[in-house]
Every structure is written in structure tokens, then in C-alpha cells.
Specification:
With about 240 residues, the chain is mainly alpha-helical. The protein has one domain. About 75% of the residues lie in helices and about 5% in strands. A two-stranded antiparallel sheet has the order 1-2. Strand 1 and strand 2 form a beta hairpin. The longest helix is centred in the C-terminal third of the chain and has 38 residues.
Length: about 240
């Protein structure tokens, strides 16, 4: 009964807020996003400081190099790195940031942190950013007329479906990531209602599973970013 009551009280979009320059900002999302960004930038700076003159990579560098190498292979297979070389650092950065953001809530704090990706505002902003960059890249590679023709070319009866597809892209990017992380946070709160003497086991199991899902969702977001760029510049090379 307590679980049912808690589930009924949790609604999407309710966050403690503050105002900055006249804009309402979700405080928990803002703090968690800053923490995730600081962690990613901090890891990059640590890796840079650990680079040895002998060229022997450390463990952190190996992790980053493995990630970047994986993204390079995906981009090369999709449309060639030379066509849009910036996609590799973009996809790698998105993966690293989203992964850390998804895992922020496992940090033990007195005031529980949330995964900022469980807030639709952040995932929607990232989706709009990626798709706007995709369209700008397509226009730069094909020209405005050529890029428009890629949506309005034959067969003409597919034009409405292409329009629906373009609307669905940012929605699917934003809602997939948001939905999975929001559900994960909700499950953690529901598990917290269990008796304290058995609470630790389901909490540990779910958090490990939640971390796995967070990694998968970060990878999916990055992969779809690469796919959308390949569609935008696919005929340019």
C-alpha cells in the first residue's frame, strides 16, 4: 500500500526550483548536471596530466582510447571520418557525459542526487542540440537545395512520412533516455519502502542493473547520433 501511495505521489516534472535571470531552473537537475560535467572534465584533465613522455598509456587513458577508437570505427563504417571528423569527439563526449550523468544518483549523499537525465528538460535539450547540428551539417555538406531535395525527392508520397520521421528523431532521443532513467529512479524509491533488514540486497541488485541500463542508454544515444549524421551527409561523399 505504501508503494502504491508513493508511486501515485511521484509525478513527472516536479523538482525543487530556483530562478536565474528570470528563468526557472530545476535545482536538483542543475546540481547533478554540473557534477556530471565536472567529473567528465576532471577525468579528462587527470588523463592529460598522466600522459608520460615515454608514451606508455595509463589505465584511464586506455579507457578513453578504447572509447574513442570504438567511435572512430563506427563513424568510419557509417560515412567515413574525413566527411565529418567532429562526430567522433562529439559522440565520445556524449557517451562519457551521459554515462556519468546516469550514474550520478548512486553517489551516497545526504541530499540524494538524481540522474539529471531523468529530467526531460536535459534530454530534450541534448536531442535538440544534436539534431540541429545534424541538419546544419547536412546543409553545409549538400547545400540548402540539395539537403531539402533529400527530403522532398521521389517518391513524392513518402514526403509526409519523412516529415514525421524528422519530428520523431528528437522525441525518440529525448524520451528514450528520460523514460529509462526516470523509471530507474522511481524503482529505487519504491525499493526504499522495503523493511530495512532486507533493503540492502534489492537495493544493490537494482543499482547494479540500473548502472547497466545507464551504460546501454548512453551507448544508444551516441550510436543514434552517429546514425543521424550518416543520414545527413550520406550522399555528400
Amino acid at each position: 500500500m505504501r508503494a502504491i501511495i508513493l508511486a501515485g505521489e511521484i509525478t513527472v516534472g516536479e523538482h525543487p526550483r530556483f530562478t536565474l535571470f528570470g528563468l526557472g531552473i530545476n535545482r536538483d537537475t542543475f546540481i547533478s548536471t554540473i557534477i556530471a560535467g565536472v567529473v567528465v572534465v576532471g577525468l579528462g584533465l587527470i588523463m592529460r596530466a598522466q600522459i608520460s613522455p615515454a608514451g606508455v598509456p595509463g589505465k584511464l587513458q586506455l579507457i578513453f582510447e578504447t572509447l574513442v577508437g570504438y567511435m572512430e570505427r563506427l563513424v568510419e563504417d557509417a560515412f567515413g571520418i574525413k566527411v565529418a571528423p567532429f562526430v567522433v569527439p562529439l559522440a565520445s563526449t556524449l557517451f562519457a557525459f551521459i554515462l556519468v550523468a546516469n550514474w550520478v544518483e548512486i553517489i551516497p549523499t545526504q541530499d540524494k542526487l538524481i540522474s539529471p537525465t531523468s529530467d526531460i528538460n536535459l534530454t530534450a535539450a541534448m536531442a535538440v542540440f544534436v539534431l540541429a547540428w545534424v541538419h546544419l551539417t547536412g546543409i553545409r555538406k549538400k547545400g540548402m537545395l540539395g539537403y531539402v531535395k533529400s527530403f522532398t525527392g521521389a517518391p513524392q508520397w513518402l514526403i509526409p512520412f519523412r516529415a514525421i520521421e524528422e519530428v520523431a528523431k528528437p522525441l525518440s532521443l529525448a524520451l528514450r533516455l528520460f523514460g529509462n532513467l526516470f523509471a530507474g529512479g522511481l524503482m529505487i524509491q519504491l525499493i526504499a519502502l522495503m523493511p530495512s533488514f532486507v533493503l540492502w540486497l534489492p537495493t544493490v541488485i537494482w543499482k547494479l542493473f540500473d548502472m547497466f541500463i545507464g551504460g546501454i542508454q548512453a551507448l544508444i544515444f551516441s550510436l543514434l547520433t552517429i546514425v543521424y549524421f550518416s543520414f545527413a551527409v550520406g550522399d555528400a561523399h
